[in-house]
What does this fold into?
Amino acid sequence: MNVTVSRMSLAGVAVIFVVVTIFAVIGTWVWDWNLFLPTTTDKATRINTVVAVSAYTAALVGVVIALIAYWQASGRPSLEPEITFPPSKSNEPMFDTYRPMKIPDWIDSDKKADVRMLQTQDGNLLGSIVIRNSTKYAAQNPGLRIAFEGLFFNALSLGWTVADSWGDMRGSKAIQWDGGGESIIHGKWSRRLPDLDFSSVVIYRLDPPPELVVTVVSDGCKPKVKNITLKCTFS
It folds into this structure.
């Protein structure tokens, strides 16, 4: 129930009670209705009672409608992140990997045995990111953070900021997108974020498999965390 519906409901209730009150007053005055009051009660008292009861009842109904409208308007959005690397399904990224001819010097010696690079058949390593709002309530000031587990990420795309860094060639431990106060994800809508570039990603851990820890937030909502495992073929 939105504000417009709430106002229309209140107006309808008001009209009904005005009509009922007028009808009861006329019936009391013309046809001498006692309205379950003692027969000794005079007409003026009965009419005043009718008006008072109608006013209190209308006020009570109005309060109930206002509370229902407030409760429905103050609901929380539900945001879900979707990361897609075609032709993989959303949140189920699949990659072929290969061992590079030369292992970069900045990789620790204890990790060099597991180092792999990503590849796809068409050479496209750009992933699309979408935040979907599954409820009818708008999400204010949305944000999304991606933490990298088991891989080094050093190809930051425009629109992303570094949330946590290794401080060297290994790149970012986590990156973040902030929508700001002017970015709203309306109810049942979605918002496309800048692409995720995996062209320079280095996998340094095979077991457990590398994963993306995705956290999505908005004003008034608890952070929602989603772990997305990279399904890779290792050669």
